[in-house]
Amino acid sequence: MCGWAGDVAEHQRFARYLHEPAVVRDEDEADPVTRILRDSDTTMAQSAIVRHLDRHAAQLPADEGFTAWARAMAEISAEREFLARRLREWALLRSISVGEP
Is 29 exposed, middle or buried (0-12, 13-18, 19+ CB in 10 A)? Predict the structure, then answer.
């Protein structure tokens, strides 16, 4: 079924996908991210997760936990080139900001 009702359901699902990984503890973050990336609408799923990665990474650049977090997210999103590239970009920004080679 298409149309208005379908659009509303998709918007609600997208909003839920934006919210869920943001409200869990860091150690539980992999579960919602993994589940969201299994959605049949890969564009929606990746869009929600890239927003999550950007929001989360922007809070962590100089944090010691960044490397472990980025590694965990990279494992989950390894098959998604756009997400993997975005994580590499955040890792590069972090390296520059903390003076790493």
Answer: buried
Phi and psi angles of residue 78, each rounded to the nearest 5 degrees, phi first: -55, -35
**DSSP string of 77-95?**
HTT-HHHHHHHHHHHHHHH
Q: Where are the alpha helices (DSSP H) in 20-80?
A: 30-37, 42-59, 66-77
Higher pLDDT, 97 or 71: 71
Predicted TM-score (pTM) of this structure: 0.84
Where is 4: in which H helix or E strand?
helix 4-19
Contacts 24+ apart (CB under 8 A), 34-42: 34/76, 37/76, 37/77, 37/80, 39/13, 41/10
Radius of gyration of the chain (CA): 15
- For residues 70 and 86, the answer to whether their CB atoms sit within 8 Å is no
50: its two tokens: 């890239």
Residue 62, helix vs strand vs coil: coil
